[in-house]
């Protein structure tokens, strides 16, 4: 029913025991580590040379696992909303955890995911380019001549182009006035544009080009394409279909390979996240050539347990615990009875009290529940809200703030 009592903690130990001590501290879950930099001038703490490289390796592994998860999840069927909101994490035995960590070939699997992702991306780019080609080529589908035959001669220019349909009659008249030595064959006439083949003598190019530009002329070139536009359209549509089928097969392969190992990837995310946090935490330690020092806080109720476990672990450790000083910035942990514990969520929304202040949660809880019931106003609504909140608590493994919120809704609904 109050702010939990803590004591200032100092641990001095031999460097060879660092990993074992960190494991014990993590299991105990009762220690808050302070940053030793606040006690030292810059440059006096000599971090081990391996630490930063180990952090970089852990970050790279974590990034690789997360990338694999994000990539695979994109192609999995979407689960129902309730399942996605309340689905619990998979459960592993310690033996299974050790086997996954030791045996999973992350580098190989990550490389496979990157290769498939690259191929999917390249195929999508090709599909996009070919669809643009289709949009351009469809205006010329009634042209019977193969595109490779549409080329200049020694004295004439043959060009495909599009101009504004509204001024096309004027364009025809102005070109006729400029010279009769030309020919226009309209391939498609739409409401906004005219697709046509224009043939003229090269000597007239300087005369014709200003007229063409004035009427929105846009020359079209299909470099490297052979066959008639209709044949090209059919060929490109087949290519797009083949690329889409290839992508579908790749996505099916992703699902087949990803589903059986998704739980293992989730486990690896937790493992490498914890490994990274543990390594980053060591930046807060004080290191010498052979020893290290941890400054922090320990729950007063766990002080004896901490001493016992570390002394059983190694003789090369010294544990000191002191009462907090008046000037210390002390971390705050609230301890409440089961009935009022959910309302810690409300207290945290407005800020936790200082270490030597009163915990308002036990006083807040009954009044919050009472006024929640008054605001709800209808006993039937309250019972329905409490019932469904209780069902969610009973059927789904809800943890953390979501669990506290549902518990508050049960209490408030009954109130």
Observed structural traits:
single chain; 415 residues; alpha+beta; five-stranded antiparallel sheet; four-stranded antiparallel sheet; 14 helices; 53% helix; 15% strand
Q: Please, could you describe this protein's structure?
A:
The protein contains 14 helices and 11 strands. With 415 residues, it is α+β, with helices and mostly antiparallel strands. Strands 2, 3, 8, 9 and 10 form a 5-stranded antiparallel sheet that branches. A 4-stranded antiparallel sheet has the order 5-6-4-7, covered by helices on one side. α1 runs antiparallel to α10, α5 runs antiparallel to α8 and α13 packs antiparallel against α14. The two termini are 22 Å apart.
